[in-house]
Amino acid sequence: MIRLASKNDYIAVFDSGVGGISVLRHLVRELPQERFWYYGDSANAPYGTRPTEQIRALTFAAAAHLMEQGIKALVLACNTATAAAAKALRAAYPELIIIGTEPALKVATDRFPGGTIAVLATPATLREGKFSRLVDRCAEECTLVRLPAPGLVELVESGRAESPETEALLAPLLAPWHGKLDAVVLGCTHYPFAASTIARLLGPGCAIIDGGPGIAAQTRRRLEQAGLLRTGEGALHWENSDPRLLELSKTLLKEG
Ligand code: DGL
C-alpha cells in the first residue's frame, strides 16, 4: 500500500548510487529543518550504461519503495533516472512532488552566451530525447560538446573519485579540450566528486557547473508553494541497496 504525501514527512532523495549525495549536501544546507531519506541503488549501479526500459523499471521500483516510507517529495538526484523515468513517474503519481535533475545547461549558456560548452554525462542521459530538447532550448548560439564518460560512476562508487585511475580514465576524453572550453556542465551527480581532476584536465579558464544548488533551491520553492516546509530539527536517514556503500556515503557528505 502506497502512502500519499503528508505534512512533516520525509523528503526522499534517490540516485543509482552515491552520486546523489552531491545534491543532498546542498539540500541539507538549504533545508536544515527537513527530514531526508537518502536511497542509493548501488547494487544496480551504474544505470547510465543500461537500456532506457531497465532504468525506468529500476527507478519505479525505488520510487515505490520510498513512497512506502511516507514521503512528501521525491528528489530524483540522478540525471539518468530523470531522463528515463521522470515523465512516466509524474504521470503515475500526479499527487507527489517530484523534482528531477537535468544538466545545468541553461546556467552555462546564460553565463557564457555564444561560448563553447561541454556536457559531461552518462551515455543514457546524452541519448535521451529530454536532453535533445534541453539543447534545443538552451544551446542555440553555443558550441556544444557532448562528452559521455562511461566508467567514472564506477570509480566514484568504489571510493576512487579523485585518484590516478580517474585521471587515467578522463585524460583521453578531456585533455584534447584543455584550454578550449568556457564551461563544463557536470551532467551526472556522481561527477562533482571528481571535480578537481576534471578542472585540472580542462585548465583554469573552464568553469565547472554543478546543478546541485539549483535543485536544492527548486525543492525549497516546490515545498513552500505546497505549504509543506517543516519546522524543528532536521534528520537524515541512510539507505542503500548495497549496505557496504553506507560508510562511503557518509564520508562523501562530509567532504562536500
Ligand atoms: N548519478 C547518475 C546521474 O546523475 C548516474 C549514475 C549511473 O550511471 O548510475 O546520471
User: Biggest β-sheet, characterized?
Assistant: 5 strands, parallel
Looking at the structure, what is the overall shape? globular
Helix content percent band: 40-55%
Rg from Cα: 17 Å
Major sheet: order of its strands?
4-3-1-2-9
What ranges have pLDDT less than 50 throughout 5 or more consecutive residues?
1-8
Structural class determined from secondary elements: alpha/beta
**What ligands can be seen in this structure?**
D-glutamic acid
Number of domains: 2
- Please write the CATH class name of the largest domain: Alpha Beta
- Percent in strands: 15-25%
Distance between the termini: 36 Å
Mean pLDDT: 94
Strands, total number = 9
Say what the CATH topology of the largest domain is: Rossmann fold
* CATH architecture classification name of the largest domain: 3-Layer(aba) Sandwich
Number of helices: 11
**What is the ordering of alpha helices and beta strands?**
EHEHEHEHEHHEHHEHEHEH
Give a short overview.
It is built from eleven helices and nine strands. With 256 residues, the protein is an alpha/beta fold.
Describe this structure in words.
The chain is an alpha/beta fold and 256 residues long. The protein folds into two domains: 136 residues, Rossmann fold (3-Layer(aba) Sandwich); 105 residues, 3-Layer(aba) Sandwich (Rossmann fold), CATH 3.40.50. It is 43% helix and 18% strand. The chain has eleven helices and nine strands. The strands form two sheets. The chain has a five-stranded parallel beta sheet with strand order 4-3-1-2-9, with helices on both faces. It has a four-stranded parallel beta sheet with strand order 6-5-7-8, sandwiched between helices. Helix 9 links the parallel strand 7 and strand 8. Helix 4 runs parallel beside helix 6. It is globular and about 50 Å long. The N terminus is likely disordered. The structure holds D-glutamic acid. D-glutamic acid binds next to helix 3.
